Every structure is written in C-alpha cells, then in structure tokens.
C-alpha cells in the first residue's frame, strides 16, 4: 500500500527564504507541504510574534530580547536582509498576519509555543488563544506544539478543540503519562535520537509521530518504516515526490 509522505515546512520553506517570514510561508504550497510550522512568543506589549530565538540578533538587523520590545519596535526591524539581499524589507510577522495568510492559502498551521526561562506561559497561552479565535480559522487547521508540557496543558484547558503535539528532543521514559495528561494528538521528536522501539511505543499508543528537522530524505528512510507520519523539514520539496511502498 502506498502511503503519502507528508511534510511540514519548518519555519516556512526556511532553506530558501528567511525563516518565519511571509516570504518563507508563500513558498510552502508550491514546495508540496500542507503545513507550516512557526515559533511564537510575546512582544513586551503582549502581541504574539513569529520568531524563533529569544533575541532578534540572529534573524534581524536589530539587537535585544523579543520580550522587551514592543510590536512597533519589532515591526521596524528588517527580518530578511540577514538571509539574502533579495529579502530586505521582510518583517517579523504577527501570529494574526500568519493566520490570515494560512486561511487564504488553505494551509494548516503548527503553532509552536516558544517558552524561554522566565517567560509568562499563561500570558502566552491567553494571547495566542485570543488571536486564534479572532482569526476564525477552522480549528482543525491548527495544531499547538511546545517543548513545554505545561503550555500544552494550559491550551487543553483553554482551547481544547485545537490538537496538541508534544515536542521532545528525546522521548522520555514517562512519555505516555505526559501525553495522557495533555490529551495529546502527536509527538514531535528529533529524528537523530528516535529509535524503532520508541516509535512503535508511540504509534501503538495511538499518537501521530512527527520528526524534526531532517533536511535530506535519505536520513529518515528507516523512520518512515517505523511509522513516522510526518517530517518537519526546511526543504519539503526534497520529499514531495517520494512514496512509501
Ligand atoms: O517543531 C519542530 C522544531 O521547530 C522544534 O525546534 O528549535 O526548531 O523550534 P525548533
Ligand atoms: Mg519550532
């Protein structure tokens, strides 16, 4: 039986355009993914912003902590020039802008709730819930993921109809208890550490299993055989035409 090899575009098509920008999101469909993964954290004035690092230093022309900058300060920064001159003028998107694009494009969005030490988890969850609800996106088109089990627990309480995926670099011994606690839909783990027995455990327990971030299909040939359902990759096109037999 042929099974489609599904991908999520990690931070958009981040191999070809600056990560977590509209330019990277606009490539997703033509590169064969139905899903975009983004990283979300709050600005100083409580706006969910799409950016991975704790600071703006790596991916913009500014310096400083995301959580100490207002949305208007963050919006002044260039988020494309660090990647390539062609992308000068890209801005850090808000979650709201991203949801609008995802709806227009008919895509799905994996919203990773980024929790850095001393971040206010409840505030992040509250604001994200607010923006997702206001967008009126069908909730089946959204998935919350996080390394922070507490953030996912909070999302289960506040917006239970959005599915939840637990991120782990390595699947821990207490995995099933933690997944049960958040009524998880999926497990997202680092492909480099996954072993067959763990993959089987997760699949037998009824969860979807995703791997991040293999950028060459040959790295995960065996992972598909173990039952992995989706690869979260910077280069989705590399997988677009491969089929499992
Ligand atoms: O969602 C998978 C992946 O994004 C998790 O790690 O650091 O790339 O956000 P990171
Ligand atoms: Mg991420």
From TrEMBL:
PROSITE patterns, sorted: GP_PDE (PS51704)
GO molecular function annotation: phosphoric diester hydrolase activity
InterPro entries documented for this protein: GP_PDE_dom, PLC-like_Pdiesterase_TIM-brl
Biological processes annotated in GO: lipid metabolic process
Source taxon at top rank: Bacteria
GP-PDE domain residues: 5-243
CDD domains per record: GDPD_EcUgpQ_like
Name of this protein: Glycerophosphoryl diester phosphodiesterase
Organism: Vibrio superstes NBRC 103154
């Amino acid at each position: 039986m042929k099974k489609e090899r599904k991908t999520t575009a990690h931070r958009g098509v981040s191999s070809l355009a600056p990560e977590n920008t509209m330019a990277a999101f606009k490539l997703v469909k033509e590169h064969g993914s139905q899903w975009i993964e983004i990283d979300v954290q709050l600005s100083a004035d409580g706006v969910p912003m799409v950016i991975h690092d704790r600071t703006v230093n790596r991916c913009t022309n500014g310096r400083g902590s995301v959580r100490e900058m207002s949305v208007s300060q963050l919006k002044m920064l260039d988020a494309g020039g660090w990647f390539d001159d062609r992308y000068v003028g890209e801005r850090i998107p808000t979650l709201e802008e991203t949801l609008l694009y995802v709806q227009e494009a008919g895509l799905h969005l994996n919203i990773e709730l980024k929790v850095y030490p001393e971040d206010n988890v409840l505030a992040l969850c509250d604001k994200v819930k607010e923006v997702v609800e206001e967008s009126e996106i069908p909730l089946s088109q959204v998935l919350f993921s996080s390394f922070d089990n507490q953030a996912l627990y909070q999302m289960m309480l506040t917006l239970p109809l959005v599915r939840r995926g637990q991120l782990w670099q390595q699947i821990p011994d207490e995995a099933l208890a933690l997944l049960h606690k958040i009524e998880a839909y999926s497990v997202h783990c680092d492909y480099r550490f996954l072993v067959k027995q763990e993959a089987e455990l997760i699949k037998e327990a009824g969860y979807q299993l995703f791997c991040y971030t293999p950028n060459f299909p040959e790295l995960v040939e065996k992972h598909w055989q173990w039952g992995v359902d989706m690869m979260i990759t910077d280069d989705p096109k590399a997988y677009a035409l491969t089929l499992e037999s």
